[in-house]
Design goal:
Elements lengths: L20 E2 L8 H14 L7 H14 L3 E5 L2 H11 L5 E5 L5 H7 L4 E5 L10 H7 L4 E7 L11 H7 L4 E4 L7 E2 L2 E2 L6 E5 L12 E5 L2 H10 L21 H32 L5 E3 L11 E5 L1 H4 L3 H10 L2 E2 L21 H7 L2 E4 L7 H16 L1 H9 L2 H5 L10
Parallel strand pairs: 1-13, 3-4, 3-5, 5-6, 6-9
Antiparallel strand pairs: 2-10, 7-8, 9-10, 11-12, 12-14
Helix pairs in contact: 1-8, 2-8, 3-4, 3-7, 8-12
The chain binds ligand T4K.
Ligand T4K binds next to helix 3 and helix 4.
């Protein structure tokens, strides 16, 4: 418990946690099952190129997504590139700026031009009215993002895309297992891309997948992800190598098996953060509709109310060994790689306030309570802490760096 400012680690007190508490600590699943599956792959001497574990993983993911097809890939970034090419996107593609940089990078890397749109500050999701206002003759597609596993305008964007004759792809990196109106969220739009990165709800060490009901799109993407081949010596497409390995599929299958217990932990942590931080002026934890996998727990802090900004809070937490992330700041349109993009006031305001909080199976109820106790303490002493951090006295009273290196 922190009772006085001197109890805070930035002022020389003992850190609240002896081991770092991370955002994105991987969920591991049943190790024995993983090793069994790896042994079997080694015994078969079939390690990649559409082996039995990848095929099984694809079947399981398609069932979860509620789609006819799943093409498993080595990560979501390549899956987005392949999806965009297979869907015929060639020029400008409208997407949110408030997302992980992989969303615009994936498309820029293959010569497409991201056109960034603003968000609804309440949900952090792309604003469909702004999307429509950005459509020009140069637009060749819309890339929605189901950020934090939430549904990105599933009742508006598909109709809008259809009216303008544009393909609608969803970056569903965060939305594995997420549902909307009782149906899997991945069934919305022409196709969706999942991430199975180590930090994700379901992980395959690294991995991604394209899911769709479109037979032709699935067949094209499948060819493109394996050098553009449709058979031995048949290369109708330009392609790349985005195949998932058997080792990744083994981890992915074990992780799918563990989904029920992961979601229970995620939801408990989500509810605990909400209850512990409820009523704290200037602080809000994003509220999700039902059906969210709760892999990301995101809070906002309003410095005009609390007197303490996101970066100071993050620094204080870091010295307590609570390694939060400023997901996603700055907005992609403010990054050097996209300099020259139009300003997006709502994205810019939100990206200054957000903080991703530690959760997942490595984070217990007691951990969450202790993290929230520190947040409450910092907010209660917001102006004082901000003043001391700004005028450098914190650095003088503590030998610890304000933001320790993450590993
Ligand atoms: N679209 C969206 C909306 C995305 O969020 C992402 C990825 C993508 C597309 C692309 O998906 P992939 O191509 O990756 O499949 C991390 C992940 O690397 C990235 O996959 C994820 N989004 C993004 C939100 O987070 P970084 O640069 O923040 O990673 P890093 O290494 O700083 O780790 C994040 C946190 O996880 C830290 O707190 C440490 C912890 N961690 C990480 C790893 C890898 C662990 O505790 N153990 C680990 O093994 O991007």
């Amino acid at each position: 418990m922190k009772h006085t400012l001197g109890d805070l680690a930035i002022y020389g007190g003992p850190p609240a946690f002896t081991e770092p508490l991370y955002v994105g600590r991987p969920n591991i699943g049943d190790r024995k099952h993983l090793f069994d599956r790896l042994e079997q792959a080694l015994d078969r001497r079939w390690l990649t190129n559409q082996g039995p574990l990848v095929r099984e993983f694809e079947e399981r993911v398609a069932a979860l997504a509620g789609t006819r097809h799943c093409v498993a890939m080595c990560n979501a970034t390549l899956a987005l590139q392949i999806a965009a090419r297979a869907m015929g996107m060639t020029g400008e593609v409208i997407m949110p700026s408030f997302t992980f940089v992989a969303t615009p990078h994936a498309l820029s890397w293959i010569g497409l031009t991201p056109v960034f749109c603003d968000i609804d500050p309440e949900t952090h999701l792309m604003d469909p009215a702004h999307v429509e206002s950005l459509i020009t003759p140069a637009t060749t597609g819309i890339l929605g993002v189901h950020l934090w596993g939430q549904p990105c305008s599933p009742d508006v964007l598909p109709g809008l895309a259809r009216r303008h004759g544009l393909p609608l792809l969803y970056d569903a990196a965060h939305a594995v297992g997420s549902r909307w109106n009782g149906r899997p969220l991945a069934t919305v739009g022409d196709a969706a891309v999942f991430s199975f990165h180590a930090t994700k709800f379901v992980n395959a060490f690294e991995g991604g997948a394209l899911v769709t009901d479109d037979d032709e799109l699935a067949a094209t993407a499948r060819a493109m992800h394996s050098f553009g081949q449709t058979g031995e010596d048949q290369i109708p497409y330009l392609g790349t190598n985005a195949k998932m390995s058997e080792a990744s599929a083994a981890m992915g299958l074990v992780s799918l098996d563990a989904m029920p217990e992961i979601v229970v932990r995620n939801v408990l942590n989500y509810e605990r953060y909400h209850s512990e931080l409820a009523g704290l002026p200037g602080v809000r934890v994003l509220l999700y509709e039902g059906g969210n996998n709760c892999q990301y727990i995101v809070m906002e802090i309003d410095e005009t109310v609390t007197g303490v900004g996101r970066d100071t809070l993050r620094a204080v937490l870091a010295t307590e060994n609570v390694r939060c992330r400023s997901y996603f700041a700055p907005g992609c349109h403010m990054m050097d790689a996209y300099r020259g993009s139009s300003r997006l006031p709502r994205t810019e305001a939100v990206s200054e306030r957000v903080l991703g909080l530690p959760t997942g199976t490595a984070v217990s109820d007691e951990d969450v309570i202790r993290v929230c106790q520190i947040i409450r303490f910092v907010v209660a002493h917001g102006r004082e802490i901000a003043g001391r951090v700004t005028n450098g006295s914190a650095a003088r009273t503590s030998s610890r760096p304000l933001v320790p290196t993450p590993r």
